[in-house]
């Protein structure tokens, strides 16, 4: 059996999504469209609602209000055939630690067989770098190997849409690089659409064509890593050495400032540098303001950023 026909239309379409726990509004009108293909990263401070959003999209959590379609289906009513087109890697997942790795993979593949052609166990374990651990019991895996198994179980049914909730937690740098290569392979060769949450901005910049920042119950920034970096850095610092002393000047128009500086310097200016806030600087500022309870000004950090 081959792949079922791919869904035609947005992979994810969300409008005015709201989620309230008790008297606390966590999502306050989230709008989001993700077209098929590529990697989208969802970032945000702790407690922003990333897991809540992803679990609503996966159909694991009900919502308070709003319209949600995932592969053309409302997750609240999605059946097994719909679920088989999704791959899910949760933040934490408990299973039977006595199982051997290869047996677990073989067992889970059976769930997908009515709907798609799942990966064979050996091919899959090779793909996620667990071939050597195939005969080991799950409870004897290291944290990073365990996470690789989570990823293996998430992609086993060759999903059209893959959700990854903080997938590289506990990975060493080598495992992280291999994981990034796997993600590129899934998007380039299989055309998988991927939505991942991460706290690692560097990872988001490396993997994602599109970054969404969730804060204050809404998406407050949406764009490519470059677009967000530019939007976040309106102020630049110009540094130079003059008469043996370091000079530092913040400016909103570095080009104009440097032009004027050099027009009158008589050759006394050396080691001129322009430093712009990186996306990471801006993101850390956002998180710090949020943690200090300053949510309103925090969301202004990326106010200019739109796609
Ligand atoms: N079942 C629940 N009942 C009540 N409140 C909840 C529940 N689940 C989550 N929350 C609250 O909703 C908010 C959002 O939680 P969520 O786990 O979605 O955030 P997150 O962005 O994924 O955070 P993190 O980065 O820490 O994983 C938090 O304040 C959390 O305490």
Automatic annotation (TrEMBL):
Major site of localization recorded for this protein: membrane
Claim: Transport is one of the keywords in the record: yes
Gene3D superfamilies linked to this entry: P-loop containing nucleotide triphosphate hydrolases
Keyword Transferase tagged: no
Subcellular location per the Swiss-Prot or TrEMBL entry: Cell membrane
Classification via CDD domains: ABC_DR_subfamily_A
One GO MF term attached to the UniProt entry: ATP binding
PANTHER family listed in its UniProt record: ABC TRANSPORTER ATP-BINDING PROTEIN (PTHR42711), ABC TRANSPORTER ATP-BINDING PROTEIN NATA (PTHR42711:SF5)
Family note: Belongs to the ABC transporter superfamily.
Protein name as annotated: ABC transporter ATP-binding protein
């Amino acid at each position: 059996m081959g792949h079922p026909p791919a869904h035609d239309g947005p992979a994810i379409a969300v409008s005015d999504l709201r989620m309230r726990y008790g008297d606390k509004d966590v999502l306050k009108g989230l709008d989001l469209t993700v077209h098929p293909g590529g990697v989208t990263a969802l970032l945000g401070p702790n407690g922003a609602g990333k897991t809540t959003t992803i679990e609503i999209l996966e159909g694991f959590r009900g919502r308070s209000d709003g319209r949600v379609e995932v592969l053309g289906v409302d997750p609240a009513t999605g059946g097994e055939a719909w679920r088989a087109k999704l791959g899910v890697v949760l933040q934490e997942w408990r299973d039977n630690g006595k199982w051997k790795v290869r047996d677990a993979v073989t067992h889970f593949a059976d769930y997908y067989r009515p709907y798609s052609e799942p990966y064979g166990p050996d091919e899959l374990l090779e793909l996620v770098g667990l071939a050597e651990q195939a005969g080991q019991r799950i409870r004897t895996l290291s944290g990073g190997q365990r996470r690789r198994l989570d990823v293996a179980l998430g992609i086993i049914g060759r999903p059209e849409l893959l959700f990854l909730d903080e997938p590289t937690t506990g990975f060493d740098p080598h495992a992280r690089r291999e994981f990034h290569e796997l993600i590129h392979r899934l998007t380039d060769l299989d055309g998988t659409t991927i939505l991942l949450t991460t706290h690692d901005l560097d990872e988001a910049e490396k993997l994602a064509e599109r970054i969404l920042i969730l804060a204050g119950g809404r998406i407050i920034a949406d764009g490519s890593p470059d677009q967000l970096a530019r939007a976040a850095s309106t102020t630049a610092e110009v540094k130079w050495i003059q008469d043996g002393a370091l000079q530092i000047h913040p400016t909103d128009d570095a080009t104009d400032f440097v032009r004027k500086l050099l027009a009158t310097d008589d050759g006394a200016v050396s080691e001129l540098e322009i430093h712009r806030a990186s996306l990471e600087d801006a993101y850390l500022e956002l998180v710090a303001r949020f943690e200090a309870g300053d949510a309103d000004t925090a969301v202004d950090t990326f106010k200019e950023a739109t796609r």
